[in-house]
Every structure is written in structure tokens, then in C-alpha cells.
């Protein structure tokens, strides 16, 4: 069979039908009907009831009659059809809608990712969420930056450390660029996660109490760095230059794996001495 350019309206209709027909009514606790089912899966009336929409609306969607459901309707259909995350995202893409991030942001590291952070030694590595909360780290990262175990959880945030921690404030050679890029990332995360009240409160605190943050926040720069370069002024071994890479796991897209690599031989030697102590 030849696959042509995607007709999103027809694919949306076919996808809804296919996912409706694969569901077992008994697994959803729906009452049995005396009349035998002519087709497998749920009836359109049952999907409509579960999603809180009219039967006629479901019929028109499944017939590909040019409807563009709202984000709320797409979300309701995804829940009614018990779609897993990847299929939910596919449904939103077909409907040309953007999902609301209903799930709470990660506040703990997914165990496989926490193990990966440890396995990445001797490269310094850590795991963060979109707020810059630091969720996991390895030994090399504690030697390079600081021992995060000594901090209360509320202070294990890369932006908070850069703005407020007395040692980290003076740690970066090009501090304003690092802060500026971090703020540009937070603004992008803030727009992507408008429901995240904790992030909103954190930004409000910085704007109110930190003049540098307030000044740079007002510039409304947007930037999401997947890789970059930082030069650090370590109190024990001197200057260390690192290249960093940020990776987003498919299974846990709210978590970000950050890996540092020494940018030159001198920095590699300094990091080796630091971690050998």
C-alpha cells in the first residue's frame, strides 16, 4: 500500500475509529447491552458519553467532515479512549492543537535516568526538570559545582544557585551570559507550562528580589540551549572550561540530562585532579 501525504482530517477520523474499536467495554466497566454488538469495541454513543460531547459530534469526527476539535475536546477524547502518552500526543498533532500539560512536573528523578547519571562518570552529569530543579547528580558534578546533598531541596535549583548562592554567584567567568541564557530558558518553559504555579512563583520571587534577574527578564529573550560552552573559576584547581550537552529522554520529556565534557587538555587535567581528591 502506498502512503501519500498525510490528510490530517481523514487520519484523525481513522485513528479515532481504530482506537474506539480496540477497547473492550467490559474493561471500562460499561453496562452490558442486550443488543449484540455489530462491531468490536465501544459504540460511538459510549465514547460520546465518556468524553462529554454529543454523539453527532463523534460521528462527524469519525466521518472526517472537516471539524477541528478544541484542545479540551481532544483531551477528553484521549481520556475516553484510554490513549497512552505517545498516542495522546499523536491525536493532538492530528487535531493541530497543543496539549495542556496536565501532568505535574517531575520533582524526582526517574530511576533509570538516575542510574544513567551515575553511569556517566567520569563525566560530570546531572538531571533537571524544566524549572532547573536539580533531581539527580553524580560524584563528578558535586566536585565540580558543590555537594547538592548539603542543600535543602528548595535550593537545589540551578537558577537559584546562580543568583543566590555565595560561591556559585562568582563561579562563572562570563556570569551575565550564563544568567541571561538561563532566564531565556525559564521564559520559554514558563510559556510552555502555564499551569506550573511553582515555576510562576519562583519567577515572581526572582523578579521581586533580584535586580539583575528583573532587568534581564524584562528583555523578553527566548532561548533553549541544547549544547554550549561554559568557563568556570574553581576555587581549588583554577579555570575549567566545559562543553555541555542537554538531552531530553523520550519516556520522560520533562527531565533533562545535562552532561559536561572538559573542553581542552588543561581543563581535563584540572577536573581529574579535582575528582581524585
UniProtKB/TrEMBL annotation:
Kindly list the GO molecular function terms attached to this UniProt entry: DNA binding
- CDD domains with a match to the protein in the record: HTH_XRE
SMART domains tied to this protein: HTH_XRE
Where do the HTH cro/C1-type domain residues begin and end? 34-88
- Please provide an example of a Pfam family that matches this protein in its UniProt record: HTH_31
Q: What InterPro entries does the annotation carry? A: Cro/C1-type_HTH (IPR001387), Lambda_DNA-bd_dom_sf (IPR010982), MLTR_LBD (IPR041413)
Q: Which Gene3D superfamilies match?
A: 3.30.450.180, lambda repressor-like DNA-binding domains
Instruction: Please state what the protein is called.
Output: Helix-turn-helix domain protein
Amino acid at each position: 500500500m502506498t502512503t501519500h501525504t498525510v490528510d490530517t482530517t481523514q487520519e484523525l477520523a481513522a485513528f479515532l475509529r481504530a482506537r474506539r474499536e480496540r477497547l473492550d467495554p467490559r474493561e471500562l466497566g460499561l453496562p452490558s447491552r442486550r443488543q449484540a454488538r455489530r462491531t468490536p469495541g465501544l459504540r460511538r454513543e459510549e465514547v460520546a458519553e465518556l468524553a462529554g460531547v454529543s454523539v453527532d459530534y463523534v460521528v462527524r469526527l469519525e466521518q472526517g467532515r472537516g471539524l477541528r476539535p478544541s484542545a479540551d475536546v481532544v483531551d477528553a477524547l484521549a481520556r475516553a479512549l484510554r490513549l497512552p502518552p505517545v498516542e495522546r500526543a499523536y491525536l493532538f498533532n492530528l487535531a493541530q492543537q497543543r496539549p495542556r500539560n496536565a501532568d505535574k512536573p517531575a520533582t524526582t528523578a526517574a530511576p533509570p535516568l538516575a542510574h544513567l547519571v551515575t553511569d556517566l562518570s567520569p563525566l560530570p552529569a546531572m538531571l533537571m526538570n524544566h524549572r532547573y530543579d536539580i533531581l539527580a547528580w553524580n560524584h563528578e558534578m558535586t566536585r565540580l559545582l558543590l555537594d547538592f546533598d548539603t542543600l535543602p531541596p528548595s535550593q537545589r535549583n540551578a537558577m537559584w544557585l546562580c543568583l543566590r548562592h555565595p560561591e556559585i554567584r562568582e563561579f562563572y567567568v562570563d556570569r551575565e551570559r550564563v544568567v541571561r541564557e538561563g532566564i531565556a530558558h525559564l521564559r520559554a518553559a514558563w510559556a510552555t507550562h502555564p499551569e506550573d504555579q511553582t515555576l510562576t512563583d519562583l519567577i515572581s520571587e526572582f523578579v521581586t528580589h533580584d535586580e539583575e534577574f528583573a532587568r534581564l527578564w524584562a528583555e523578553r529573550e527566548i532561548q533553549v540551549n541544547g549544547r554550549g560552552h561554559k568557563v568556570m573559576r574553581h576555587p581549588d584547581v583554577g579555570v575549567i572550561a566545559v562543553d555541555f550537552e542537554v538531552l531530553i529522554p523520550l519516556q520522560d520529556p520533562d527531565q533533562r540530562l545535562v552532561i559536561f565534557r572538559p573542553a581542552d587538555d588543561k581543563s581535563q587535567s584540572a577536573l581529574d585532579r579535582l575528582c581524585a581528591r
